[in-house]
Amino acid sequence: QVQLVESGGGLVQAGGSLRLSCAASGRTIRNYAMAWFRQAPGKEREFVVHMAWGGANTDYADSVKGRFTISRDNTKNTMYLQMNSLKPEDTAVYYCAATPAILNRVYGDFRRYDYWGQGTQVTVSS
């Protein structure tokens, strides 16, 4: 079992940047597919980005492509989400998620992930 803790959220002006961290414990994230999701008030949980088991492949939601970058440091057992050119519509609670499964085309389905962090709030002001 893996435990996930997000950090790095905050308040930023439109056009600004934030870097979120997801620190894992219990198991090495090298053996997990990892992802970031977000949820705004009154909306469903939304897929942001996925990094496949092994870290070789990544998949981004169209809404963040070119602005967000996922990465992970296996030595620190931590995943990151670099968010640039932030927009007010990026405002949400951001969650990291993990699963030992190989997801292929279902990586965007939050129900496929077994482990979740508690979330970190990102607020982008206009």
Topology (SSEs and partners):
Layout: E1 3-7, E2 10-13, E3 18-25, E4 33-39, E5 46-51, E6 58-60, E7 68-73, E8 78-83, E9 92-99, E10 115-116, E11 120-125
Distance between the termini: 40 Å
Structural class: mainly beta
SSE pattern, N- to C-terminal: EEEEEEEEEEE
Helix content estimate: under 10%
Unreliable runs:
none
Q: Would you count the extended β strands for me?
A: 11
Mean pLDDT: 95
Radius of gyration: 13 Å
Basic shape: globular
Largest sheet: 7 strands, mixed
Strand content: over 45%
Instruction: Quickly count the helices.
Output: 0
Brief rundown of the structure:
With 126 residues, this protein is mainly β.
Describe the protein.
By secondary structure, the protein is mostly beta strands. The protein has no helices and eleven strands. It is globular, with a radius of gyration of 13 Å.
Key terms:
126 residues; mainly beta; four-stranded antiparallel β-sheet; seven-stranded mixed β-sheet; single chain
